[in-house]
Write a structure and sequence with these properties.
- This protein has one domain.
- By secondary structure, it is mainly α.
- It contains seven helices and no strands.
- It holds the Pfam family Oxidored_q2.
C-alpha cells in the first residue's frame, strides 16, 4: 500500500513540473524542467515496478532515463537555448495564476472521470491515473495557449509523457519493445520539430506562431 501511495505522490509532482515547463520564460529553462519531470517519471516507473513486481518496468525506467532525461532535453536545449524573441516574451496567452487554476480544474475533472473506472489494475492508482490523463490535456493546453512555437514543442512532449504514464499504469507487464517504440517516436518527433522551429526562426526572425498564418507560394 505504501508503494501505491508513493506512486500517487510522484504523479502529483508531475503536475508541478508541467507548470514549470509551461510557465518558464525561456525555452532553455523549459528543457531543464522537462528533464526534471522525466526524472520524476523514471522514479515513478521504478516505484510502480516495485509495487507490481514488473520486471518490464525496470527496463522501461532505464530506457526512459536515457531518452527522456538525457537525450530529448539535450536536443531541445542545444536547439532552443540560443533562440529568443524579445518582442514575444514567454508567449503565454494565460497568466501564471490562470494557468495554475486551469491545471487544478483539469486534474479535478480527470479524477471525476477516472473515479468511475472499475478496472482492478487501477483501483489503487486512480489519483496517478487521473494525473496521467490530466497531463495529456495540459500538454494540449500548452500547444493551444502558447504563441511561442518552441513552447508548443514542449506541449507535445508533455502529452507524450502523459500517454506514456497511462500505458505504464494500465499495462505494467507490457514488453520493453513497446517502450522502445514510444521513446524512438518521441526522439524523432522532437528532432524534426527542433529543426523546423530553428528554420522558422532563421527565416522569419520570430517565434510567434501568429506569423505562420500566411502561406507563400
Amino acid at each position: 500500500m505504501v508503494g501505491f501511495q508513493l506512486i500517487n505522490g510522484l504523479a502529483g509532482l508531475l503536475i508541478i513540473t508541467s507548470l514549470l515547463v509551461i510557465l518558464s520564460d525561456r525555452p532553455g529553462n523549459s528543457a531543464r524542467f522537462y528533464a526534471l519531470q522525466s526524472l520524476v517519471l523514471v522514479a515513478l516507473f521504478l516505484a510502480l515496478a516495485e509495487a507490481t513486481d514488473s520486471h518490464e518496468l525496470y527496463l522501461w525506467s532505464a530506457s526512459a532515463f536515457v531518452t527522456k532525461v538525457v537525450l530529448v532535453p539535450l536536443i531541445m536545449y542545444r536547439a532552443f537555448s540560443k533562440l529568443s524573441d524579445p518582442k514575444l516574451g514567454s508567449g503565454a496567452v494565460l497568466s501564471p495564476a490562470l494557468s495554475v487554476v486551469l491545471a487544478a480544474l483539469v486534474v479535478i475533472l480527470c479524477y471525476s472521470v477516472v473515479s468511475g473506472v472499475s478496472l482492478p489494475a487501477a483501483a489503487a492508482i486512480k489519483p496517478a491515473l487521473a494525473v496521467s490523463l490530466a497531463h495529456f490535456f495540459l500538454g494540449l493546453a500548452c500547444i493551444v495557449t502558447q504563441r511561442n512555437i518552441l513552447k508548443q514543442v514542449f506541449g507535445y512532449c508533455l502529452m507524450e509523457n502523459g500517454s506514456h504514464l497511462t500505458l505504464a499504469l494500465l499495462a505494467a507487464k507490457a514488453p520493453e519493445l513497446v517502450e522502445v517504440g514510444i521513446a524512438t517516436d518521441a526522439i524523432f518527433a522532437v528532432v524534426i520539430m527542433a529543426v523546423l522551429g530553428t528554420k522558422i526562426f532563421l527565416t522569419l526572425h520570430t517565434l510567434d506562431a501568429r506569423q505562420l498564418t500566411t502561406l507563400k507560394g
